[in-house]
Design goal:
Helix content: 10-25%
Largest sheet: 8 strands, mixed, barrel
Order of helices and strands: HEEHEEEEEE
Number of helices: 2
CATH superfamily: Sortase
CATH architecture: Beta Barrel
Structural class: alpha+beta
Strand content: 25-35%
Radius of gyration: 18 Å
Number of domains: 1
Oligomer: single chain
Length: about 180
């Protein structure tokens, strides 16, 4: 019986490792594909957005959408959210165990850079808060964002949690006038 259980656990571990490696390979390939499109952008290619956060070493291309498959490819711009740098609150979500693993380390005053269509937008972190998943008001545009574009990063919290996390980490930033 022990031999059977040991064999089962070995196979299960191998399958889980294969799934994890396949997901990371997909992430790498999708990021590489988007970076290649951005570098050789022609008139027919859709505009790409690059998210760069020096403090945490994040430098990734942003996908459009936030479903499970979208977020495997990169941080995702929430549907209906304006592009970063445009008036309103641009909301970008990411998995806590991949692209947004270190977003929890951001603090007010930290810099977030967004490259889009040949322009670089500089955002400065204003707040970091932990909320319940049902509190979606934090994702809405504010009166201030009608004057100065805002950026909100969203990920699950706690970042070390295994399984569906009970809370959300929200980092808000406001565009700075100097790139």
């Amino acid at each position: 019986m022990r031999s059977l259980v040991a064999r089962f656990c070995g196979w299960l571990g191998a399958v889980l490792l294969a799934v994890a490696l396949a997901q990371y390979a997909y992430m790498w390939a999708e990021q590489h594909r988007m970076a290649t499109v951005a570098a050789s952008r022609d008139g027919g290619a859709p505009p790409t957005t690059r998210l760069l956060i020096p403090k945490i070493g994040l430098d990734d291309m942003v996908v459009h959408g936030t479903d499970y498959r979208d977020l495997l490819g990169g941080p995702g711009l929430l549907a209906g959210s304006p592009e970063p740098g445009e008036p309103g609150n641009s909301v970008i979500a990411g998995h806590r165990d991949t692209f947004f693993r270190h977003v929890v380390d951001l603090a007010p005053g930290d810099t977030i850079l967004v490259g889009r269509m040949g322009h670089e937008f500089k955002f400065v972190v204003q707040t970091k808060q932990i909320v319940k998943p049902t509190l979606t008001a934090v994702l809405q545009s504010t009166p201030a964002s009608r004057r100065t574009p805002e950026l909100t990063l969203v990920t699950c919290y706690p970042t070390y949690w295994i399984g569906p996390a009970p809370k959300r980490l929200i980092v808000t930033a406001r565009e700075s006038s100097t790139p």
